[in-house]
Amino acid sequence: MANFFNNKGDDNNIFCDINVTPMVDIMLVLLIIFMVTAPFMMNTIGVNLPKGIGEGQQKPQEPLTISINKESQIYLAKRNIDLYNLSQFLKDSPRIKDGEEVFIEADEEVKHGFLMKVMSMAYEAGAHKINLLMEKN
Q1: What does the pLDDT look like over 80-89, one tens digit per residue?
Q2: Strand residues in the chain grouped as ranges (E)
Q3: In order of start, what are the domains of the chain with their CATH numbers?
């Protein structure tokens, strides 16, 4: 193995290696700067809002949930509703017109075709955000 530091007039033994220490120092300084300034970037602009009379915050509504039991009975807002009235109810619902999500919880014994029929009726009524619920193991 050649000794790079013992140069006795021979130009073939030149030490050429990248010195990464300055680059590491710069990266550490940048990391510290970002760590210090990150909490300040999360805050919004300080604005004093005007005071006024009005209602408090609205209570969040319960999600619009369609439930189907193992006898293929449909419940909407805990009320029993038949398949054909479901479509009309959803078409008239302002929550559907506002683009609110619809959740469907179906018993595992419900036939796939019936579940697809309920989903397609909800979609045709204007519910374009349909979620199927399941229980976590």
Answers
A1: 888 888 888 8
A2: 64-68, 74-76, 79-81, 102-106, 130-132
A3: 64-132 (3.30.420.270)
